[in-house]
Each structure stands twice: as C-alpha cells, then as structure tokens.
Amino acid sequence: MESQENIAAALRDQALALGFDAVGFTRAETSAEAQAGLARFLAEGFHGDMGWMAETAARRASPRAMWPEARAAIVLAANYGPAHDPMADLARREAGTISVYARHKDYHDVLKKRLKAFGRWLVATKGGDCRVFVDTAPLLEKPLAQAAGLGWQGKHTNLVSRAFGSWLFLGTVLTTLDLAPDEAGADHCGACTRCLDACPTRAFPAPYRLDARRCISYLTIEHKGHIDAEFRGAMGNRVYGCDDCLAVCPWNKFAAATRHAEFAPRADLTAPALAELAALDDAAFRARFSGSPVKRIGRDRFVRNVLIAIGNAGAPDLLPVVERLLDDRAPIVRAMAVWAVKRLDPARHAELAPARRTCETDAAVRAEWGPV
Q1: Which of 135, 182, 187, 300 is catalytic?
Q2: What is the CA radius of gyration of the chain?
Q3: Which of 180, 2, 209 minimizes the C-alpha distance to 74?
Q4: Which of 8, 120, 143, 294 has its CA 20 to 30 A from that of 323?
C-alpha cells in the first residue's frame, strides 16, 4: 500500500503541474475557534445583506456537515499578485479603481477547471471520491487554508502567506482519502496594525474582526441598495471592491507578480475612465465585463458605484455625464446622480432641486434632492 507521505508528495506535484502555486492538507473539519468566530460574526449582524451566510451557517461550520464522508481537505492556492502597487490607482481621481482580483478572467472559472482536473486525476490514481469547491460553497476556506499550512488569517481576516503576501486565490478539494495533515500556519502579524489603520471606512472593530457592513468591498459588490452617505466620500474612486488592507501588508514585500496569464490585468479594466463607465447601458456593461467577476453585480449597482466615484473626483467637467443619469430608470442610479451633482456643483443642484424633487417617485431619490 502506498504511504501517506508518497501520496501527499504525488498530490503536491500534480497540483503544481496543473498551475497551482501552493497546496496543503488538513482534516475535513473546522476548528472550534473558527466556528465560534462565524457564530459571533453572524450574531452581531456583521454579514449585512449576505443572508446566505446565515442560511448556510450549519453547513458552513464544518465540511463534514456538508459532506459527511469527507476525511481530508486539500487546499490549493494560485497567486494573483499584481505587478504594481494597486494603491497608486487611488490618486487617479477621474479613473475608476477595480479590485486586483477582478481585473482579469473570473478566477472562479479558472480555478474550478483546474480543480476538476486535479480531482479526476486524484480519483483515477489514488482512489476514493472527492468534491471540489471555489468559495461559492459554504466552506470556511481561510481557516482551512491556515490549518493546511498555507498561511494565516491576518488581522484583516484575509489569508496572509509568507511566500505570496496577500494575493492568493483559494480552492478546496474534499476527499474520502485519509491524508496526513500538514502543520498549521502560525500567525506572523505581530504588533503590526497597518491593515486596520488603512481601512477608509473603519470596517475593523478589532483585530481579526470585520464588520462587512462598513467594508467597501461589501458596499460596492454585495450591497444591493443605496449606499449610506457616511461611506460615500471614503469610497474615493473605488468602483468595485477595495484592496487597501491587502496592499499595505508588509508581507507583500516577499510577493511576486502572478505567473498565470489568466490573471494578467486587462487594459480596459485597469483605471478605466469614469465618464466611459457611467455611459454604459445594460448591453454595453455585459459586453465590457464579459468573463469578469464584475458582471455579476449588474449594470445598475456598478453605475451607482461609478457615480459615487465621480462625485468624489472634484471634476466639474464630468457634470454633463452625471446629469444624463438623473432620468435613469434605476432609483439607485438616479439617487447617486443627484448626490454627484451636489458634490460637483452645489449651485446646479439647488437650481434643479425644486422641479426634480416634485416629480421624483422614489423616496430615497427625493431625499437626495433635499427637503422641501
């Protein structure tokens, strides 16, 4: 019978051959600490609109609750590290900043294809059964990755690797094989609080705790409604996601740019002009973001984000772009168009307000025009 050590070595070699950059093994179980952290996160309402997290909490708490036959978890990672500092894009006020992970082909598609190939090879050569997952399933992937020795969950709650910094996509293979677990990753954050200090909206109530309701990634991607005025200024020109807490991590000094062509940034998704993005209708939006994670939030929420960025740009020349959206069919777009007009030209806002407020049918949009 083949030894566990030989099986593990063969699995690592195959994972690397298929295009993964790191692989580790752990038991198909989640620590009591991770389960308690999830329960606390949900009890405090930090998940916001993400009701699916509460609905799947029982299965999310343990891989075996989702698949009782699982014995081990194989956690695989792919480096998507950028070639430049993404924080530099925040200074380009008339351009939109899209999170590094979404500037290229959707990683779900890329990783799922590789994971399926790995799973087929595993079953054919080592036996047993397996199931593959890329963060759309109810798995606590980051605690599993730490348990498998790929890194540790930093104070910003994301995985940090000594070899790849903050820039790893994760995939998980649950298997009925009994594999020896790797040594869990140790926390190397020390006294550093750069990630917490960098957050524009103060989304971290304490180290290792995230209030997603205040997170720009949540607000621009997961949140479906109007974005509270409290957060709009802090969003700057971020139109999809936020990389600040990842980008400032000192461990990134050991990171390297991705070697994967699929994760190379598309030119049209790197600092695109806000005026160009604001002009997108549904068809143009779908075409522009075909194959990108951005597509899943839909045109209306995306243009909502773009209008907030325009309001923060301090560029009056963008006013005509904004005014064209005052009659948009979507209330979340109209509301942020009103807000952007006020930011760019308060006098113009005051001029338009009486008539616009009277004919507006949506209460939230009327509120943006101000009191009668």
Answers
A1: 135
A2: 22
A3: 180
A4: 294
